[in-house]
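Re: that backbone. C-alpha cells:
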C-alpha cells in the first residue's frame, strides 16, 4: 500500500468519513448497536465535528483511509473526539500518526472515551500513555455500551510511538 498523506478535512469529506466510521466500528465491535444512519453521521461530521473542531484526514490513492477529530470539551478539556481507520490500515502506524497530531496540538494532554469491549483500541491508547480515569455501565451512552474515560496528562519523557506496531 502507498503511504497515506495527511490533510485537513473538507466539507465534501463528510460522507466518505461517515462510511469509514461505520466500517471501522463494525470491524472493531461486531454487534454494536448503531443508532444513527450513515447520512446522520455524515451530517454530524460536517456540521459539528468539522465545523467546531480540528479534523485531519489520512488519504491514500485519493481515498480517505483514516481521520482524527480533536478539540476542547467544556467538561474534559482537550479531547480526542474521533479516531477511525479503515481496517486494512490497522497496526501500520497510521493511527499513531493521527494521534500524534492531536497530542501535539494539545501539548500532549488529551482525554477520550473508548467503548470498554474494544480491547484493541484500549491497548493502543494505553501504549500511547493514556490511563483509565473513569468508567460507566453504558446507561448514558447512545450505544448502551459500557465505556472508559482515558486521560493523558502531558507529554511522555520519551516517544512511545513505534511505527507499525499499533493502529
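Recovered sequence:
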Amino acid at each position: 500500500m502507498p503511504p497515506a498523506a495527511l490533510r485537513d478535512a473538507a466539507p465534501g469529506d463528510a460522507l466518505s468519513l461517515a462510511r469509514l466510521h461505520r466500517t471501522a466500528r463494525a470491524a472493531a465491535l461486531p454487534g454494536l448497536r448503531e443508532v444513527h444512519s450513515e447520512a446522520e453521521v455524515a451530517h454530524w461530521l460536517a456540521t459539528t465535528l468539522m465545523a467546531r473542531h480540528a479534523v485531519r484526514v489520512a488519504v491514500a490513492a485519493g481515498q480517505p483511509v483514516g481521520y482524527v477529530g480533536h478539540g476542547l470539551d467544556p467538561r474534559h478539556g482537550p479531547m480526542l473526539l474521533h479516531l477511525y481507520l479503515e481496517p486494512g490500515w490497522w497496526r501500520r502506524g497510521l493511527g499513531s500518526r493521527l494521534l500524534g497530531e492531536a497530542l501535539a496540538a494539545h501539548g500532549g494532554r488529551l482525554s477520550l472515551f473508548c467503548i470498554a469491549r474494544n480491547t484493541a483500541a484500549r491497548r493502543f491508547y494505553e501504549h500511547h500513555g493514556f490511563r483509565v480515569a473513569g468508567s460507566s455501565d453504558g446507561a448514558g451512552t447512545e450505544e448502551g455500551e459500557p465505556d472508559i474515560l482515558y486521560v493523558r496528562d502531558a507529554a511522555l519523557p520519551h516517544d512511545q510511538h513505534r511505527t507499525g506496531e499499533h493502529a
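The beta strands are 5-8, 54-60, 63-73, 77-85, 110-115, 131-136, 147-152. The first helix runs from residue 14 to 28.
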